[in-house]
Amino acid sequence: MVAGHSHVGVHGHSVVHRLPAQVKIVALVAFVFTVVLTPREEFWAFFVYAALLAVVVAIAGLPPRLVLRRMVVEVPFLVFALLLPFVSQGPQVEFLGLTVSESGLLAAWNLLAKGTLGVVAAIILAATTPSRDLLVGLQRLHLPRLLVEIATFMVRYLEVVGAEMHRMRIARESRGFHASNLGHLRVVAQSAGALFIRSYERGERVHLAMLSRGYTGSLPMMDARSATASAWATAAVLPFAALITATAAWIAS
Amino acid sequence: MHVPDGFLNAPTSVATAVFAAGTIAVALKKSRTELDERTAPLAGLTAAFIFAVQMLNFPVGVGTSGHLMGGALAAVLVGPWTAILVMSVVLITQALLFADGGLTALGTNITLMGIVTVAVAWFTVKAVLRILPKRPSSVVPATFVGALLSVPAAALVFVGLYLVGGEADLPVGALVATMLGWHTLIGVGEAVITSLTVGAVIATRPDLVYAARGLQPDLVLKTAEGDVVAARPTAAQGGASARRPIAGFALAGLAVTLTLAGVASFFASSNPDGLEYVAGEQGFLSSARDHLFGAFALADYGDVGGIPVGVAGVIGVAIVIGAGLLLFRYLARHKPAGPETPVEPRQDVSA
């Protein structure tokens, strides 16, 4: 469960892998913002964006199947997007033999295109950057220190807490428990309560262990690579190409 | 409920991001008062806990399962400011590592799931605790109400954001009704599991539950003859000082609720037949209407006779709160005195 989730990185040595995390974060956020700002009626622009992302995936050497598999997180919004043409108001049009709302159809396309591009961009970032580097990158981008520290502890102990939850599940099931109706919520909730106490007490022990090693209230942060100008220039290619596309789309619309 | 990229337009996304960043900045300062220098490890572990608990699926009905959002749970367990940090970290990690929730919608997601749920749950819990008898177990029903309200409140704020910066042209009344209806159901699930979880923690480590602080029963002294004498709480136990901020919280909560009701009902009824529409006869959607909302069309319906409706919403809330207060007063008075909870010494942590 959790163990599977925490290894989101894909090992590799491509240009995309080697770029410092902060550069990649800035480039991807700029890219996604450009996509969101593009007028939805200019359909071709979104295919250009998709092609750009496909090139990045190819350069990074990510298996396309892996990218597709991780795209399942957007399924809830795919369902929502599919509903939009039927529940929106405004002039009705014929589409694939169905009478649907024109604005709803456009909105569905908008959500589908922009949402998917955003998800793929985030997948590329997560797959080419170790989670530790991501946190260091966030710190380089001047995210508040305390927030980065909390995130660091969370990422570090996610697997431990997840494994703890897994052991509790095995203990429940080995006693014949099987959650099948609402009455079993109490058991699940008690496990959650126990999990909180264990996590919190672990936090207290971790804190004491840190104190005994000279912790004074903030963590030393190490090996924060500073980004070179050439790294920024390399990463800027993607949002720059997107910006040209978006400008063309604005002029065309 | 994670909002993806492209759901709200760019100006709205930026506005919510600025709001979220400002709130996080305040929370970073205030959380020090809740956890002092232990903030980083404890909030980090709590974030890992919330993340793990969100994966804990429970059956909802026929073949479907749901999971917690966790805002109310975090607020009750570790205090509101720390909870905002915890939820923000969880959401940032989900967006960056798991592509769950759009990068540009991060501010929106933090605002909805990290700030609105926490704030509504916390104000509600504090308000309800004021009416319930002063003992740790009162936190459980208070948590139930808080978690129950937190989910539809987040849904309402989402609808508000959608009206300002949404990219589709949905009928307002129907949107409000479906979002509220659906999320009230989700809220019931959230309330049941959150209050049961808090109850489980209170049963073993009441000292860990932030919302239960200051609710320990007063000390009772027994003399050698067996007479029972109530010990006077000293200032250090916070008997009197714990009261005042609660009044402030309750007032602020009331203000937030009234504003929401006033503003939300204003929006909802600018399409007067929207609610009946869902309730009924014509099906979910049929008639084509003029576009009510372009981007930032708020100015257009400032004078659609909204003010009386907003006032009606406020009056409605006042009636509901009044009825609720009376009900709780009654319940509190007629509740059988619970078994004396033994005063446990605070357990020391063994590493």
What does this structure look like?
The complex is a heterodimer of chains A (253) and B (351). Chain A is built from 11 helices and 2 strands; from the N terminus they run H-H-H-H-H-H-E-E-H-H-H-H-H. Chain A has 253 residues and is mainly α. Chain A is flat, with a radius of gyration of 23 Å. Mean pLDDT of chain A is 81; it is low at 1-6. In chain B, a hairpin with a 5-residue loop joins strand 1 and strand 2 (65-66). In chain B, helix 1 crosses helix 5, helix 3 crosses helix 6 (139-165) and helix 6 runs antiparallel to helix 7 (172-204). Chain B is globular. Chains A and B meet through helix 3, helix 6, helix 7, helix 8 and helix 9 of A and helix 1, helix 2, strand 1, helix 4 and helix 7 of B.
- Provide a count of the helices of chain A: 11
Q: List SSEs of chain B in N-to-C order.
A: HHEEHHHHHEEHHH
Low-confidence stretches of chain B: 235-246, 264-310, 335-351
**Given the structure, what is the number of helices of chain B?**
10
| Major pleated sheet of chain A | 2 strands, antiparallel
Mean pLDDT of chain B: 70
Given the helix and strand composition of chain A, which structural class is it? mainly alpha
Mean of residue pLDDT of chain A?
81
Strand content of chain A: under 5%
Helical coverage of chain B, percent range: 55-70%
In which range does the helix fraction of chain A lie? over 70%
β-strand percent of chain B reads under 5%
Name of the CATH architecture of chain B: Orthogonal Bundle
What would the principal axes of the Cα set say about the shape of chain B?
globular
Biggest chain contact: A-B, 97 and 78 residues
